């Protein structure tokens, strides 16, 4: 299971704070009209992303880390709660959580934050992973941009549309890192509103590279509540430690060398 797929399943399971929770190489840069053109098409990017995700999932046997959950409600009343947990993952489907500390509203603790932990454990089941996998079986992809952050790091920006209106899927955009073909950033909303109580859920997720693997770094969901007010759920991931993993051996593909132009790339007509 990839980190991005786990985010989709977990965050959508809780109506009040629904979100995304649940986890290379390029052709040489071509210039047209003095602006870089994305080297690969959407189909090529998605194919490599799926392949690399599978390779990383097979290689990562176990890791652990610490998470801080913070939930703030602003409406008729002001309530907040926080939860610090230690998490251990073992391939293929085991996640264990240990609560380190908890503060704030007991209602938010019990009805939301602790249910998030339960939902993530349940989401590890094989059928759930298949139904929410970030791939062509569940989504349509369209290349909308190609951005260079530095001389040696670029991102394909893909618009993601779910093939079905499933509350465990999402619509929005993903930023795929062009060397590792890993999701580095996600922004969007659930494909289907999972609860009558919520009107809108804006989701922002970022990932960081730890060794050979891309793991969640920060997760924010801003939810508009139907009656009145809104909630902000923030999850900060830290203290990662890879306990056991195989080396990720990936053959170099043509185009692993990036140019140093800093402008956003243009897309050729065939890539749109």
Describe the structure.
- The protein is an alpha+beta fold and 272 residues long.
- The protein has one domain.
- It is 19% helix and 46% strand.
- It is built from four helices and twelve strands, in the order αββαβββααβββββββ.
- It has helices at residues 3-12, 42-59, 106-122, 126-131; strands spanning 30-32, 35-37, 60-74, 78-90, 94-104, 139-150, 153-162, 170-177, 183-190, 198-210, 213-225, 230-245.
- A ten-stranded antiparallel beta sheet has the order 5-4-3-12-11-10-9-8-7-6.
- Strand 6 (139-150) and strand 7 form a beta hairpin.
- Helix 1 (3-12) packs across helix 3 (106-122).
- The longest helix is centred in the N-terminal third of the chain and has 18 residues, at 42-59.
- It is globular and about 50 Å long.
- The two termini are 29 Å apart.
- The model is unreliable at 8-35 and 252-259 (pLDDT under 50).
Brief overview:
By secondary structure, the protein is of the alpha+beta class. The protein has one domain (3-239, 259-271).
Low-confidence stretches: 8-35, 252-259
- Rg over CA atoms: 19 Å
Which structural class should the secondary elements be placed in? Answer: alpha+beta
Categorize the overall geometry.
globular
β content, as a range? over 45%
How are the SSEs placed, and which strands pair?
Layout: H1 3-12, E1 30-32, E2 35-37, H2 42-59, E3 60-74, E4 78-90, E5 94-104, H3 106-122, H4 126-131, E6 139-150, E7 153-162, E8 170-177, E9 183-190, E10 198-210, E11 213-225, E12 230-245
Antiparallel strand pairs: 1-2, 3-4, 3-12, 4-5, 6-7, 7-8, 8-9, 9-10, 10-11, 11-12
Helix pairs in contact: 1-3
């Amino acid at each position: 299971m990839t980190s991005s797929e786990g985010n989709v399943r977990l965050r959508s399971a809780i109506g009040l704070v629904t979100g995304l929770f649940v986890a290379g190489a390029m052709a040489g840069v071509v210039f047209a009209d003095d602006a870089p053109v994305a080297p690969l098409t959407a189909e090529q990017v998605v194919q490599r992303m799926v392949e690399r995700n599978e390779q990383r999932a097979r290689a990562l046997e176990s890791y652990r880390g610490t998470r801080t959950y913070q939930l703030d409600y602003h409406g008729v009343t002001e309530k907040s709660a926080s939860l610090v947990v230690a998490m251990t993952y073992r391939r293929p489907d085991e996640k264990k959580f240990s609560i380190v500390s908890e503060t704030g509203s007991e209602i938010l603790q019990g009805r939301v934050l602790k249910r998030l932990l339960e939902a993530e454990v349940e989401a590890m089941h094989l059928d759930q992973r298949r139904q929410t996998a970030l791939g062509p079986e569940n989504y349509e992809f369209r290349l909308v941009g190609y951005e260079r952050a530095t001389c040696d790091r670029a991102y394909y920006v893909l618009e993601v549309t779910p093939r079905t209106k499933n509350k465990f899927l999402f619509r929005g955009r993903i930023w795929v890192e062009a060397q590792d073909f890993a999701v580095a950033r996600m922004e969007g909303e659930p494909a289907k509103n999972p609860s009558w109580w919520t009107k809108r859920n804006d989701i922002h997720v970022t990932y960081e590279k730890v060794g050979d693997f891309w793991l969640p770094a920060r997760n924010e969901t801003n939810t508009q509540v139907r009656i009145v007010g809104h909630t902000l759920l923030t999850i900060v991931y830290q203290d990662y430690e890879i306990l056991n993993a195989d080396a990720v051996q990936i053959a170099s593909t043509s185009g692993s060398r990036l140019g140093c132009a800093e402008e956003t790339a243009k897309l050729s007509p065939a890539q749109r």
